[in-house]
Amino acid sequence: MHKVTEHQDPGYTIVGNHLTRHRSLSGLAIGLAAYIQSLPEGAPVDIRTLAKRFPEGRERIAAALRELEAYGYLERVRRRTDDGRMVTVTLSYNNPAATRARRAREDAAQTKRRTAVEPPPATPSPSPASVPAPAPVPSPAPTLEPPRGRTEPSQPPQPSHAPQPPQLPEPATREHHTPAAALLANLRHDDPCLLLSVRDTHRLTPPVAAWLERGASPDAVRSALTTGLPPTLRHPAALLAHRLAELLPPPLPAATPSAPTAPPPPLQTCDGCERAFRAHVPGRCRDCRQRGQQSREPLSMKLS
């Protein structure tokens, strides 16, 4: 490929390669994202307006807009106007990953400033006069033994409300471990926030291998792990582990063995016309047998 580059007058749009070379977006979605970025602020980008501009139709344009929403290039939010009406506002991001990283830095800086401004509450030291005298220790109450023949009902264990970590699936073999590890290592190309450590990659490789073992394609696994990421992703490994455990596809059904078919009869050479035909024993083909039967018919039957 050779590029022919000319100087352009003012009126062009800068589009990042992360959009034009996106591995999961369709061509229509990439084109719509570039077109929306070229529009002025406040221009309508609803499905009806885009369907009048492009020949693809409303269904395909709506599907492409959902793709851009899933990968963070578009966001539709509901806002209340000054007169009290609720309207839908479409936000177009030219670099969703950079926006998420900037918001994370701003949140961290705001939290740091709030912590520095608000000093911890001081604990007043008690004066000697205000220290209360120690209370007398009460004598232990006598323990009453239950009557014989009766047992105290055991208290049921209290349920624990602490969230349990998801139980990650395990593959039956190590056949898919290498492509699973490569898939996890390449997630950083889809979103910089999915840069995993070596420890997290080793921990998440068996669950991804279990997905591949159940017939899921690498593109399907990548789409399940990278679609609809939150704007601020603080623990990417925990999110990936949750999705691998909750969205695990069922195993493929066992193939039903088909009944063995009998082999066809071998080829024989016809003794009359030397044409090949299939039969279990040598002899004449069907046409020669029919001609032989017709030649043996009585002459009266032929005249009639």
Architecture overview:
Among the domains are: 17-94, Winged helix-like DNA-binding domain superfamily/Winged helix DNA-binding domain (Arc Repressor Mutant, subunit A); 177-246, no CATH class; 267-294. The protein contains twelve helices and four strands, in the order H-H-H-H-E-E-H-H-H-H-H-H-E-E-H-H. The mean pLDDT is 80. Helix 3 (47-53) packs across helix 4 and helix 8 (198-213) runs parallel beside helix 10 (236-246). It has helices spanning 17-20, 27-38, 47-53, 58-70, 96-117, 177-185, 187-190, 198-213, 218-226, 236-246, 286-295, 299-303, and strands at 74-80, 86-92, 267-269, 276-278. The strands form two sheets. A two-stranded antiparallel ribbon has the order 1-2. The protein has a two-stranded antiparallel sheet with strand order 3-4. Helix content is 40%, strand content 7%.
Keywords, separated by commas or semicolons:
304 residues, mainly alpha, Arc Repressor Mutant, subunit A, two-stranded antiparallel ribbon, two-stranded antiparallel sheet, 7% strand
